[in-house]
Amino acid sequence: MLNSKITEIGQIDSISGNNISVKLLDNMKSKMPVIEGVVYKVGQIGSFVKISLGYANLYGIVTQIGSGAIPENLKDAYVNDYSSFKNTSWINIVLAGEQVGNKFERGITQFPTTGDKVHLVTIQDLDIIYGGYEDSNSIVVGNISVSESLDAKLDLDKLISRHCAIVGSTGSGKSNAVSVLLQSIALRKFPSSRILVIDPHGEYNDALSGYSKVIEVNSTDEKNRLKIPFWALPFNELMKIFSGNLSDQNREYIREKVVDAKIKSAKKNKIEVSDQSINADSPIPFSIKKLWFELDDFERMTLQGDRITPEPLVEEGNVQDLKSNQYPIAGIGNSAPFLNQRAKGLLSFLDSVRNKLNDDSYSFLFSPEKYTPKSNGKIDLDLDSLLYDWLGDKPPITILDLSGIPSEVMSSISGTLLKIIYDGLFWGVNTAVGGKNQPLLIVLEEAHNYLKAGENSISSRTVQMIAKEGRKYGVGLLLVTQRPSELDETVLSQCGTMIALRMNNSKDRGNIRAAVQDELQSMVDLLPSLRVGEGIISGEAVKLPSRVKFFKIANAPKGSDPKASEKWLKEINNVQDEYTTLLKSWRNKNYKL
User: Fold this and answer.
1) Residue 466 is part of which domain span?
2) Closest CA to 167 of 557, 554, 516, 402
3) What's the start-to-end Cα distance of the chain, in Å?
C-alpha cells in the first residue's frame, strides 16, 4: 500500500452541498509527481481525487481549478489582499462515489469534513473505480483516456433500458463510436439479442457487415428488399404523401371509404377483429388501387335523364393499371347526359394519388410485393412476416437502410416504421418475442432529421412515446445526432446515458449541459478539446463520468470523410461514361446502378 503522505495533495477547506473546495499543499513538490515510475498530473479537469475516511474512501471529480475555485467566503479577502493568496492553489471537486473494501459504488453515504486530507488517485485506485462491472452484463468500447491500460466498460442493461444518446460534431467519430458499441454487443453472441438500426444514409452497411442483416429499398435480393405496406400507415400519414389540399369534409369522406374497405378486407383475410374496433388507422390491408378507382369513377360518371342512373361506359377502365372509366361527355343545358351533382371535386387530388402510385421510387410503399393487397383486399403475407424479417432473423443487428426513400416522406416513413414496431411489441408484451421477454434496442442515426423540437410529426410523437414508456416494455433508444439543439428536449432528457464527443457549437453544448448532472456541467466545456474518437460518457451506464478513447472500427462507416489527398491521386478512366452512369442513377434514384 502506498504511503499516504506521498499521494497527499491538499485538504478540504469548505463544503457546500456536493461541491467541495480544496486548498492544495503549499509544499507540494510538483504538479506532476512520479510515484512508482508513473507520472501523475494534479488538478486536471475531469480527473479524480480521493478522500480517505478510514474504513471508506470517497472519490471526487475535479471541476474547477485556480482562483475561481476559492470558497465564496474567502473571495472578498482574495480581492482585497491578493498578496496573501498569490502562492496558493485551489481546486473544486464534486463527490461521485465511495469505495468500501474493494468495491466502488456511485453515491455517498457520509460526507467528509473540513480539514480532511485529499489525495491524488493512483493506478490501483483507478482499477477499483473502473472495475466492478459484471462480465455478464457489460461491454468494452475503448480505453480510459487517463490510463489507456484500463478498459472502458458500459453496463449493458442500463444502457438499453434507460436510453442513450451519442452526440458530436461532424468528423468527431460518432459513426465509429456507434459501430464499436454495436459490434461489442454483437461479439457477446447472445442467442436472442436484437438491435434495429434506422439508417437514413446507409452508413453502417459495411462497418457492421459481419454481424448484421441489411434491408434496403434497392436491394437486388428480394428477401432483403425494404417493404413498408402503405396500409400500415395511419390515415393522416397516408394522406400526407399525396399532394393537393383536402377539405375536412372530403377527408372524412375518404376516411369512411378506407374504413369500409378495411372491414371487407378483414373478412376476406379472415383477420380476427370485430368490425367495431376497425378504424382508418388500423393496420389492416385494403386495395388502394381499387379505392382510387371507385373514387375516381364516382367523380367522372355522367348520368342519364333521371339524373340517377349512370350513362353506359364509352371505354372501360382498369383497376390495376389505374386507368379511369370513360363516360359520355355531359350535355349542355338541360340535355342528357348530366354531370354528377354529388361529386366531391376530388379529381385533382386523385390525379396526384395516381402519380404517386405509378412512381417507381414509391414502389416499396405501394407495391410491397407479397404484402400488396389484391383488388379484393387479399394478401399473401401479413405484418407478422414483416416483423420477423426485421426483428426475428438470426443476425443480432438489422439495418433498415432508408437512403433510397424520397426525402419528402422520410419523416412519415421513419415514424411509421417505429410505430409498427413499438405497437407490435407493446400489444405483444406477454409473448416470447415481446419487449419484456426479448428487449429491443432501436438506433436512430441522424435523429435530428426526423425528430425536430416542436414538430408534431408521427416520428416525433412515436419517439417521445418510446422515450417515456419504452423502458416498461423492453424497448430502448440510442439517439445519434450532430445537432442536439434541434432535438426535442423531452426525448433528450429521457436519455439516461450521454456519450458526448467533440462538439464546437456552443448552442449544442448548452443542450448537453442541460442534460447532465448539475455539478458536472463544467466537464461539458472540455468537449471542444477532445480528440477525434474520444468522448465523455456520463449517466446510468457508467459508474462515474469517464473520458474514453473509443476503439477504431476495422471497416470505417461510409460517413467517414473522404481523403482528398488520396482520392485526387487516382486517375479516372472513361470520365464521360461515369457521368452518364451518374445521370442514370440520379433519374432512377438508385445509387447502385
Assistant:
1) 139-144+150-211+395-561
2) 516
3) 67
pLDDT greater than 50 at residue 1: no
Between the alpha carbon of residue 233 and those of residues 267, 272, 279, 467, the distances in Å are 20, 20, 12, 21
Residue 337: asked if its preceding bond is cis (omega within 30°), the reply is yes
Does 290 share its domain with 420? no
**Structurally, how many domains does the chain consist of?**
3
How far are the Cα atoms of 121, 226, 256, 257, 287 from residue 290, in angstroms, in the given order? 73, 24, 15, 11, 5
The predicted-structure confidence for 358-392, as pLDDT tens digits, reads as follows 998 899 999 999 999 999 889 999 999 999 999 88
Residue pointed to by grid coordinates 416522406: 409
Using the 3D structure, point to which of 361, 385, 413 is the last residue of a domain.
361
- Specify if 59 maps to a domain: yes
The model carries a pTM of 0.83
CA 467 – CA 161 distance, rounded (Å): 10
Other CB atoms within a 10 A radius of the CB of residue 315 amount to 9
Instruction: Give the other-Cβ count within 10 Å of 388's Cβ.
Output: 12
Tell me the pLDDT tens digit for each residue of 228-272: 999 999 999 899 899 878 899 999 999 999 999 999 999 999 998
